[in-house]
């Protein structure tokens, strides 16, 4: 790959599962963890600061606009696509639930889980 032009995206620190060179396209492989994007992966961005060792800290420039903490309406693991659900009637907070391929339209896709949580917990979500 040869980078010809770029628009700066949201840069986030991440654990990098393998030692990869700068500008490697990466996908989420676990909570706050990335690895080289392979076939059928959901690429989230590219390494701008690679890790110096396996499971070391690096920086990923993503295609996302925001990283938010948000309440979950079900168990959500890292890399799960999510959509907004009904607002919590008690607190008025927004809630995210799993987005279903083939059922939900792409316009309902809110983002990808960066750090997972159990039902009613608080997850970190990368927002488009």
Provide key terms for this protein.
five-stranded mixed beta barrel, mainly beta, 0% helix, 128 residues
Short overview:
By secondary structure, this protein is mostly beta strands. The chain has no helices and ten strands. β2 (about 25-30) and β3 form a beta hairpin.
Q: What would your notes on this structure say?
A:
There is one protein chain. The chain has strands at residues 11-16, 25-30, 33-36, 43-49, 56-62, 66-72, 81-84, 95-98, 109-115, 122-127. The protein has 128 residues and is mostly beta strands. The strands form two sheets. A five-stranded mixed β-barrel has the order 1-3-2-4-5. The model has no long low-confidence stretch (mean pLDDT 93).
Largest sheet entry? 5 strands, mixed, barrel
The percent range for helix content is under 10%
Number of strands: 10
Uncertain runs: none
Radius of gyration: 15 Å
Distance between the termini: 24 Å
- Overall average residue pLDDT: 93
Q: What is the global morphology?
A: elongated
Give the strand line-up of the largest sheet: 1-3-2-4-5
Secondary-structure-based class equals mainly beta
Bin the strand percentage: over 45%
Number of helices: 0
N-to-C SSE string, H for helix and E for strand: EEEEEEEEEE
List the helices and strands and how they pair.
Layout: E1 11-16, E2 25-30, E3 33-36, E4 43-49, E5 56-62, E6 66-72, E7 81-84, E8 95-98, E9 109-115, E10 122-127
């Amino acid at each position: 790959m040869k980078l010809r032009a770029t628009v700066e995206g949201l840069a986030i620190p991440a654990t990098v599962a393998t030692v990869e060179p700068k500008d490697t396209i990466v996908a989420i492989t676990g909570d706050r963890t990335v690895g080289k994007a392979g076939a059928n992966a959901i690429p989230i961005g590219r390494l701008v600061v690679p890790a110096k060792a396996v499971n070391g800290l690096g920086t990923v420039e993503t295609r996302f606009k925001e990283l938010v903490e948000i309440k979950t309406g079900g168990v959500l693991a890292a890399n799960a696509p999510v959509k907004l659900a009904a607002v919590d009637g008690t607190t008025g907070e927004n809630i995210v639930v799993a987005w279903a391929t083939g059922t939900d339209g792409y316009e309902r896709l809110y983002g990808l889980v960066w750090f997972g949580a159990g039902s009613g917990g608080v997850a970190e979500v990368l927002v488009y």
